[in-house]
Design brief:
The structure holds two protein chains of two kinds. By secondary structure, chain A is mainly α. Chain A contains ten helices and two strands; from the N terminus they run H-H-H-H-E-E-H-H-H-H-H-H. Chain A starts with a helix and ends in a 12-residue tail after the last helix. Chain B is an alpha/beta fold. Chain B has a domain of 133 residues: P-loop containing nucleotide triphosphate hydrolases (Rossmann fold, 3-Layer(aba) Sandwich), CATH 3.40.50. Chain B has a six-stranded mixed sheet, with helices on both faces. Chain B is globular and about 45 Å long. The two termini of chain B are 31 Å apart. Classes of the chains: A mainly alpha, B alpha/beta. Chains A and B meet through helix 6 of A and helix 2 and helix 3 of B. The complex binds adenosine-5'-triphosphate (ATP) and magnesium ion (MG).
Chain lengths: 291, 234
């Protein structure tokens, strides 16, 4: 039986992982919900965000600059990907969409590998995130704790964007019925571009924030992609609240299970997903008969 | 007719390989209420969808106020002041009543205020914070019409607005439709409820297997039981 301190520390790790999964998954879920495209390049885009942070930090040492420049870079990547590639596949069967986004992901990963090499890069923790803090009888890395707060703030900003702005209104309506949005006079194609770029930005920002606490290397997005898929299935396809709650649940399952046995953390995640699918096939926040 | 606001000429529409509309021609004058009747599967919905741009006619022309609109995407046609209120109502169930209305108003240059809409439909004011999926059938239909109205659409295409509703609610909605017409709006209405449709239409077209089979006034149609039976089954 693991100690209370270990369990508690794993619970915090679960929160840090969970908020990040929530961020990655919310990008995935709004793209899936609105555009109907399951974006298999999402893991690669997460990785690209981490590399963007690595490059800017290596040259300037500024975390904030990394976040800003990386954010702009991810938006550009998102817009280019949608305009030049994904857009051509909206009317195509799902298999084609999966193949093309999967292919785009491979190209991104291999391009990064070709340019930066396959070895691990380390991204420094920003000065305000160094050291450890004492939480009662538990010592916990400062950056991880701050990370929870930062990602929570990003998720809240995303919430405000989706639920308090006109763009958000169009996105939420588009998730339900993109054609009717068009019938009501809105240029859905343009809205699709915004949604895709926003989803890519979410994946990229998650990668940037995560970069200091993981080993940054070209294949780092793979397992994250799989976990993000599980999250959106648990939360309900196309649901933003589902992605957030599902992300937190998945983060805790993975972290707490690995306090007992690391080998079982993914198994446990899939077991919970399978159980949930039996009990509630549409996921926690999904509506029946959608997507 | 040069005064027609909406004019279809020899429109042929398909779903994939199946030919649904055959040389459909019809006109709707400014401030006119026209009913499009016909049996199940006659092609009424397809006609409205062709006008809205949801189905692109393979041949023929559709003009709105003299301007050719066939081939334009639905959002551009909507911006020209034409609005389809679809058969399935297509209310956004995850959005509140008010969000449904605000969404509809986003791109309309002369959008009505929410207050003006709520004066027209007091029931929607009471329900404004309710989610779309919590509405009754009648309320959904009101909201569907209100979304066209808040855009200040000049031409409104109503696809079976009374379908599945209780007689009292149908009576209310017929009154709403009359009010719209009295305001100078142009309406093309598709209905199975022939009596309700004829009660506020100025002119009628009957569609049969994708062909316009008859055109005339409600009085002429009512006075011809054989015609009613042959094409409408009533
Ligand atoms: N999406 C579709 N794909 C293929 N065929 C379709 C599609 N929608 C309708 N049809 C067919 O087109 C024909 C005309 O359909 P339409 O919906 O226009 O009829 P309608 O007059 O509106 O009927 P109803 O009174 O039942 O609403 C029908 O035979 C129908 O089966
Ligand atoms: Mg129909």
């Amino acid at each position: 039986m693991p100690s209370t301190a270990l369990l508690l520390s794993q619970a915090f790790n679960g929160l840090a992982l969970g908020t990040l999964l929530a961020l990655v998954a919310s990008g995935l879920t709004i793209i899936l919900g609105t555009l109907g495209v399951l974006n298999f390049a999402h893991g690669a885009l997460f990785m690209l965000g981490a590399y963007a942070m690595y490059v800017v930090m290596a040259h300037t040492g500024s975390w904030l600059l990394g976040l800003l420049a990386g954010g702009v870079f991810m938006l550009v990547v998102g817009v280019a990907l949608e305009r030049l590639l994904v857009r051509l596949f909206y009317q195509r069967p799902h298999e084609d969409q999966i193949l093309v986004t999967f292919g785009a992901g491979i190209v991104i990963v291999e391009a990064v590998r070709a340019y930066f090499g396959g070895n691990t890069k380390s991204v420094p923790t920003p000065p305000w995130g160094q050291g450890i803090v004492r939480l009662g009888f538990l010592f916990y890395p400062t950056y991880r704790l701050e990370l929870i707060g930062i990602v929570a703030a990003v998720l809240f900003a995303l919430y405000l964007l989706l639920y308090r702005t006109s763009i958000g209104l169009v996105v939420r309506a588009g998730i339900e019925d993109a054609r009717m949005v068009g019938v009501l006079g809105i240029n859905v194609r343009r809205a699709f571009l915004a949604v895709f770029a926003l989803g890519v930005l979410a994946a990229g920002v998650a990668g940037m924030l995560y970069a200091p606490i993981v080993s940054v290397q070209p294949d780092m997005g793979g397992s994250f992609l799989v976990e993000a898929f599980v999250v959106i299935v648990i939360g309900g396809l196309g649901s933003y609240p589902g992605a957030v709650v599902g992300g937190l649940i998945a983060g805790e399952i993975i972290s707490l299970t690995s306090a007992f046995n690391t080998a079982y953390s993914e198994v446990m995640l899939f077991a919970v997903m399978a159980l949930l699918l039996v009990l509630r096939p549409q996921g926690l926040f999904g509506s029946e008969g959608r997507v | 007719m040069s005064t027609s606001l909406l004019e279809l000429e020899a429109v042929n529409s398909f779903y994939g390989d199946s030919h649904i509309l055959f040389d459909v021609s019809l006109t709707v004058g400014r401030n006119e209420v026209v009913a499009l009747l016909g049996r199940n599967g006659a092609g009424k919905t397809t006609t409205l969808r062709s006008i809205m741009g949801l189905v692109t006619p393979r041949s023929g022309s559709i003009r709105l106020d003299g301007r050719a609109i066939a081939g334009l995407p639905p959002f551009e046609i909507a911006r020209l002041g034409l609005q389809l209120v679809p058969e399935e109502r297509a209310i956004f169930g995850q959005l509140t009543v008010e969000e449904n209305l605000r969404l509809a108003a986003l791109t309309a240059p002369n959008a009505w205020s929410l207050d003006r809409i709520y004066e027209f439909f007091p029931r929607l004011r009471e329900r404004r914070r309710s989610g779309g999926r919590q509405l009754s059938g009648g309320e959904q239909q009101m909201l569907a019409i209100a979304r066209a109205l808040i855009r200040d659409a000049q031409v409104i295409l109503l696809d079976e607005p009374f379908e599945g509703l209780a007689p009292l609610i149908v009576r209310d909605l017929v009154r709403v439709s009359r009010d719209l017409a009295a305001q100078g709006r142009t309406i093309l209405v598709v209905e199975q409820n022939v009596v309700a449709a004829l009660s506020f239409a100025d002119r009628v077209y009957v569609l049969n297997n994708g062909h316009i089979a008859w055109e005339g006034t409600p009085a002429a149609l009512r006075g011809d039981p054989a015609l009613m039976k042959a094409h409408l089954g009533v």
